[in-house]
Amino acid sequence: MSNKIADPVLVISDTWGIYIPQRYCSHIDEKIAEEMHIPFEDVQICQAGPDHEWYWESWDIICQNAEWISDGVKWGLHQDGDLWEVPEGFSFEDED
Q1: Which of 7, 11, 1, 22 is nearest to 91 (CA)?
Q2: Considering the entire predicted model, what is its pTM?
């Protein structure tokens, strides 16, 4: 049995720029937001697009709080230009 941490998953390329939050949130409904432990109000703000006054604040809240379990692995979000879904315990710094 291996203790290897799962690899991160590239979700949205940085070529989407300021539209990354809107694109990521486009499929999230109230049920999914609850499952990810993020406020649906912030999801709706990001769905409204980058012209919304609280767009970036809402996106920060989503990135800081999003977590979910898939196949027994706890996941979260990481943005460094590109948007990644990352497994708990993974560090991009360890990849250098």
Answers
A1: 7
A2: 0.89
